[in-house]
Predict the 3D structure of the following.
Amino acid sequence: MRAAVLAALLLAAMPAAGAEERRSGFADMSAATQAMQADDAANPGMLWVLDGEGRWSRKAGRTERSCADCHGEAAASMRGVAARYPAIDAERGEAVDLAGRIALCQTRHQEATPAPRESEASLALTAFVAHQSRGLPIAPPDDPRIALLQAEGAALYRMRRGQLNLSCAQCHDDNAGRRLAGSVIPQGHPTGYPLYRLEWQGLGSLQRRLRGCTTGVRAESFAPGSHDAIALEAYLMSRAAGMPVETPAVRP
Amino acid sequence: MSGGLRRGAIVAMLLATMPAAADEPRPVMIGGDAIAASLTGRPGDAARGRAIVADRQRGLCLLCHAGPFPEERFQGNLAPSLAGAGSRLSEGQLRLRIVDSARVNPDTIMPPYHRTEGLSAVGAAWRGRPVLTAGEVEDVVAFLVTLKE
């Protein structure tokens, strides 16, 4: 039931007409793939969410503490958190993405070795935390440091790159909705990460998705967790502000 | 700059920007909106050119263009069909558009197939190499010339 309501919500947020209208990649998918995302029993991404839920209450590190020991019920404490990342980590005064934030808790508060980025453990915890924001509008923090980062990200988004000399904007703003060979070019909103991609047969991060786009134009990829990667994500999130979080989304 | 390269403009020489890759570097003469002479000094091979155009790893053309390739299922719609390109444009005009379409339209999304300068953040595997060698450009041009409507 909840899934059906979510699907209705996603579709309502994305009117078919109007070049200025924002639309999630969900709207460009086949009905079958949409149904897979919308039904928790069929959505493969939910397996990682369940795995993450298990990890949430598992004690770890020198402090022998679980995430739950400090944060309690994730449904309450993590609600809306993913919708405002990347955000500033107060201790370092620097922006981190959600996976980086979780790794900081593992080193700083659990005194554990953090799960490497894009490992199954990191993806599962990130998916579990982000899932607590499903259906909530993306809402980047109102912070001048984040605004600066968004501006840097916007420049990266508009920069032509790679041997094929294409910017993100040339595909995702200027040609969204058209066909690049067999694929409809989506607007490129980061609403569903980490998400299950049929092509990957697994769950993957936004960074992994971006590697597909950067190597597609034969460009260098952004190093996950790097300043540029976080700036680009901050811009993508500001561009998607107000759109509902879909984690775990499904994409072709 | 771009305006100066449109039809009727004086001949510009593009020496430095041409890569000295596997093929012998030759001066590329851009006259108006065309490169009149073959980049290799020899005519290309239309059959090889057709294979390059249809190849999604080498030519990549069908990512954006459709064309007379009944055997190819997924063709793009970001660009005009290649059908009839040989009627609309001369051989020299076709050559310039493959070598560096930005010379005709600075905002183009069509990749510069035989230019290596002025590009940013090129991946290590591709750095310093053009998308197509001079010989491959000639093969593609030889094929496009045959696309009459």
Remarks:
- The interface with chain B takes residues 159-166, 170, 174-175, 178-182, 214-215, 218-221 of chain A (CB under 8 Å).
- Residues 1-15+22-252 of chain A form a domain with the Cytochrome Bc1 Complex; Chain D, domain 2 fold (CATH 1.10.760.10).
- The longest strand of chain A covers residues 87-89.
- The mean pLDDT of chain A is 93.
